[in-house]
Amino acid sequence: MSNFFDKSDLTRKDVDEIVSDTLKNCDDGELYFEDSKSESIVLDDNKIKSSNYSSDLGFGFRAISDEVVAYSHSNEISKDSLKNSAKSLQSTLKSVKGTYNHEIPKTNNKFYDAINPIDQKTLDGKLEVLNNVNEYLRKKNSTVKQVTASFSGEQKSIEIIRSGGESLTDVRPLIRFNVSVMLEKNGRKETGVYGIGGRQSYDDYLKNDNWKNVCEEALRIASVNLDSKPAPAGEMKVVLGPGWPAILIHEAIGHGLEGDFNRKKTSAFHDLMGQKVASEGVTIVDDGTIDKRRGSLTIDDEGTPTESTVLIENGILKNFMQDRLNARLMNTRSTGSGRRESYKHIVLPRMRNTMMLSGKNTQDEMIKSVDKGIFAVSFGGGQVDITSGKFVFNCTEAYEINNGKIGSPIKGATLIGDGPSILKEVSMVGNDMMMDPGIGTCGKAGQGVPVGVAQPSILIDKMTVGGTKL
Amino acid sequence: MIKDQEYLKSKASYCLDLAKKLGATDASVTIGNSISETVNFRNKTLDESNRSDSLAMGIETYIGKKKSSISSSNLLDENLKILIEKCYETTKITPEDEFNSLPDKELLAKNIKDLNLYDQSHVENDKKIGYLKELEEAASIDKKIINTESSFTEDKSNFILANSDGFCNGYKSSSFTASCVTVAKNENNMERDYEFTSKCHLNDISNPSELGKIAAEQTIKKLNPKKIGSDKLSVIFDKRISKGFLSSFAGAISASSIARGTSFLKDKLNQQIFSNEINVIDKPDLIKGMGSRCFDSEGVKTDTLKLVSNGILNNYLVDTYNGKKLNLKSNGRSGGSTNLYFENGNINYDDLLKSHSKILYVTETIGHGTNLVTGDYSVGANGFLIENGEFKYPVNEITIAGNLDEMFKNIILANDLEFKYSVNSPTMMIDGMTVAGK
Q1: How far apart (Å, rounded) are the C-alpha atoms in residues B331 and B298?
Q2: Cys-Cys link to B157, which of A2, A275, A341, B34 (CB 3.0-4.6 A)?
Q3: CATH 3.30.2290.10 spans which residues of chain B?
C-alpha cells in the first residue's frame, strides 16, 4: 500500500486535522488520494509503435452541504496545497450547518488481488507476444493488410480519508489485451477487433497461447464483414447474441437508472419505480462483486462496499444505482455505485457489471421465429439521450434473418430504440447468459470508467435498423 | 497562479540534460500547467464548484532509432530522475524503427506570432454565479422548462515544448466557457437541448440571457416529436452537426491513417473528393482562434493549408513520423488540424430550406457510426421535418445512413459560416440519404 504523503511535509495528524476541520459542518465529504501507474505498449504497421509508462499521484478534496458539492484537486501533495484546497471548498460553502454522516458500511470481501500487473510480465515478454500476434495473423491469411496489437495495464491505489480520521483503502489492478486486424480483398477493406481483460495479471489471460484465440476472433469478424451486404433500413425484429451485445442494456436501461438523473427528474425513468418497464422474465442486476471482472470493485470511490443491485426483477423496476449524495437526497442507501475516473473528477453514480439474467428460450427458437429481421452478434459503441430515452448502438457483426434462417452478413449499421419501451418488446430471453470479454469503458460527463456487461440471447420484436437498403 | 515560463523551462532543461547525460541521443519534453475553475448551477441554485490545478510532464527519449516515452504529474526532481532513468532503460530494449526521429531542424518554428490566445482576466466565483443566475432566469421563463443546468468554466494554461535540437518554446492560453442544458416537459414527453459559448477572451463570450433563451427555445421546439417512415431524403445538417463531417475528413486524411492504409481517402491526393464548389481551409494563425497554434506538438511551424480546392484534395495532415513513412515533409499537423473550415457556399439558408418539397433537418446525431476505413456512415438522429421551406414538426428515433465517399460529393453548403468552434462549417445539405424510421 502506498503512503501517499511520505515524501511531503504532511503528517497523518495534519491531514486528519485539515479534513475534520473542513468537513465539520458539512453533510458529507472526504479526501481522496490516488497513486496510479499505467503502461501502454502498441504494435502497429509491423513495428512497436509506442511504449509509454505513466505515473500519477494526486488528491481530490470534496465537501458536500445539502445538494451543493465543492471539489478541489491537485497533484501537488503538500500542506500548502491541501490548505489551499480546503480554503477553496470553504469559499464555496460559506455558512454551512449540516451534520456529518459518519456511517459507512464495512467489508472483508476482496474481489481481486493487490498486484501490479505491469511488473508481473517483463517488457521483453510483452514485446514477444505482440510480435507473435503480428506474425501469426500475417502468415495466416494473405488478405491481412494491417495488424494492431496492444497491452495496457495499470495499478491504481486509493485511500479515502473521512472526517474523524477514518481511512479506507483499495488497490486495483486492471489489464487489457487488444487485437485489431484489417483485411483487403478486391479493393474492399474491413476491420475486425477483439480484446480481453480484467483485474488479473496479463498471463492469467494469456494462458495456453490464448492470444491466438483473440487473433482468430478478430480475423473472423473482419472476414465476415468482407462479404457483407448493405444493411436493411426500417423497423424489424432483432435477435441479439449473448455477452457483449448487452451494451444495449447498458445504454437503453442502465444510464436511465443512475440516481443523479432520477433525483433531478431528468431521466425518462424517474417516475416509473415499482412499475412494469420490461416483459415478464426480464431481470437485470448491476453487480460490482464478481471475482476479477473489469467492472468489479471491492469498495467504490466513496468507500462503500459494492453489491449486486437488482434493478429490474421480472419486468418490475426495483432500484436505482446510488452514490452517497444522491442516496441521502432520495432517502435511501448507497448501492456502492459512487465512482470517479480519477482524483481529478467528482463522484457520480455509475454502473459496474450490468447483467440481464438467463431465461428459458434457446437462440435457435428465436431465429426460427423471425420471418424478416437481423441477428446482431457484436457491437462497437453505444450512446443514450437520458431525457428522451432514445439510445443507439453500432453493429460490428450482424446477419440478415430470412424465414427463420440466418442469411448473409450485413454492413455495420446503427440500431435505434426507446429505452423505457424497448424491454417491453423483448419476447424471448435465452438460457445462454454470457459475460463480455472484459473490454468495456463507459463515458459519462467526460469521465471514463471500466465496466462489464452480460446477457443471454434475446429476441426484440421491434427496433429500427439504420441501414442503407430500403 | 499559473506557473510561469521560467519555471517550466527550468524543469524542461533538467529533463533534457538528464536524458542526454544518461546516454539518450535525442529527447523531446513537454511540461504543462493548467488551472481550471468551474461553477455549476441547477434550477437557479449553486450545485457544484470545482477547482483543478494540474501539472504534467511527458518525455520521449531516443537512442538512435529506438524510442520510448514516459509521462507523470509528479514534477519533483527526485521523481523525474527515477522516471527518466526508467524511460532510458525501456528505450534500450525497444526495437528500432527507421522512421523514428525528431522533426527536421529547418522545419522547426522560428518566429512565434502573438495570436492573442491569452486573456488574464479572472472571474471570481461570485461573478460566475451572477452570470449563471441571469442565464437560468432567462432559460426558465417558459413553464414548459422543468429543469435547467448551467456551468461556467475558466481555464488557464501554460506549456513549454523543448527538444535536444535546441527548440524551446511555449505560450499561455485561456478559455472561458459557459453552457446551458434545459429539459422541457409536456403531457406527452420530455426533451433536452443545450447551447454554449466558448472563447479565448472573456469579453467575447455570449450574453447570459441570450444563451439561456436559445437553449430553452431549442428544447421546447423538440416537444411532441414524431417518428417518420423510412425513405430516401435530402438531409440538411444544422451547423452544430455539419462541422462533424470536417472532423471525419480530418481523421481520414491524417498521415497516420493514410500510412496505415486504414482510410477511405487513401490514394485520393489530387483527386476530386467533393463537388467543384467545395474548398476546405486549415488556418492556424487566426487571431483568438479556438484551434490556433504557433507550432504543432513536435515544434514544427504551421502554415495555412488549402486542404481542398474546387473539390480536389491537395494535402494530408502530416507529422514527422508518418511523413517519413509516406515520403512527405511534415506540414506541422502533429496533433491534427487547427482552425478547420469549409468556405461559404453560394446559397443562402432560407433558399436551402426551400430547395426541395420535403427535407429532414438534423439538429442532433447520436452514436459513433462513422467508419473511416470504409466510409460507411449510420447514426441515430433527431431534428425536424421541413415541407416547402417550413418547419412542420420535430422528428426523433430515426437513423440516417450513407457512405462518406458518395456523401462528400453531394455536399451543398449555405453561405452562413461563423467561427464558433475550432472546426466550423456552414449549414449543409446532402441529397439522397437513407432515413430509417417506422
Answers
A1: 11
A2: B34
A3: 5-221
For the question of whether the overall pTM of this predicted structure is more than 0.80, the answer is: yes
CA distance A429 to A123: 45
CB contact under 8 A, A52 and B70: yes
Hey, are the CB atoms on A265 and B55 less than 8 Å from each other? no
The β-bridge partners of A435 are A454
B269-298 residues touching A, CB cutoff 8 A:
none
Q: Over its length of 438 residues, how does chain B's per-residue pLDDT go in tens digits?
A: 889 999 999 999 999 999 999 999 999 999 999 999 999 999 999 999 999 989 999 999 999 999 999 999 988 888 899 999 999 999 998 999 999 999 999 999 998 999 999 999 999 989 999 999 999 999 999 999 999 999 999 999 999 999 999 999 999 999 999 999 999 999 989 999 999 999 999 999 999 999 999 999 999 999 999 999 999 999 999 999 999 999 999 999 999 999 999 999 999 999 999 999 999 999 999 999 999 999 999 999 999 999 999 999 999 999 999 999 999 999 999 999 999 999 999 999 999 999 999 999 999 999 989 999 999 999 999 999 999 999 999 999 999 999 999 999 999 999 999 999 999 999 999 999 999 999
Strand bridging mode A353-356 / A390-402: unpaired
Q: Is A233 at the interface with chain B, CB within 8 A?
A: yes
ipTM of the complex: 0.88
Nearest Cα to Cα of residue B52 among B38, B32, B73: B38
Domains of chain A: 123-158+172-226 (3.30.160), 233-466 (no CATH)
Question: Which superfamily, per CATH, for B5-221?
Answer: PmbA/TldD superfamily (3.30.2290.10)
